[in-house]
User: What shape does this take?
Amino acid sequence: MSLPAVRDLRRNFPAARIEVLARPWVAELYRAVAEVDDLRESRGLRADAKAIHDGFDAAVLLPNSFGTALAVWAAGIPERWGYSTDGRGLLLTRRARVPAGVRGRSQVYYYRAMLAGVGLDTDSPPDASLHCPAAWAARGAELLGDDGPWLGLNPGAYFGTAKRWIPERYAAVGDLVARRTGAKVAIVGGAAERPLGEAIAGAMVAKPLVLCGERCRTCARS
Assistant: This one.
């Protein structure tokens, strides 16, 4: 959902070096985004402030939290842009108000409205596409084989059951799609979601491939 905003930044600053600081479980996805020059994994407020200290001219904050603004302020980054939310307005050098029109809509529009609010051009159509690197495709072929097509189910959620569909419904959908399309089902997710994946697999008639915890070796952090 952040990719249209990232691409807006690239269009506004075509010659800039753009790095993304993101949580470990999503950071690697940005290696598939040509507009991003490099990425860093977020390790908490103090660690982040130390890691980016004096290394950047500007920080663009997509999260709303006070802590994200405090980290880039403590890092000594001179320009700090974002929504003036969570009492962090004094830590920002360019502040945007949340427009009423983006409330309740996708974060795609929320992030882009913030960029517009700090004075950037966001007139281009939103582009949230991802293009799989060749090495990732090769690893996928190694895991799945050539006897597709495949349907991927990602049943996990960061906040656990509060934001997660129940396993029985994932199993029912997997069986329904497999029956109607002939596709094979692969259940993906993190290592901690392996028991959930196994539970869904156990409830399915068309037995899926459980890949929770499997990572692409070419993009594993050393």
Q: What stands out?
A: The longest helix spans residues 167-181. The two ends are 27 Å apart (CA to CA). Confidence is low (pLDDT under 50) at residues 216-222.
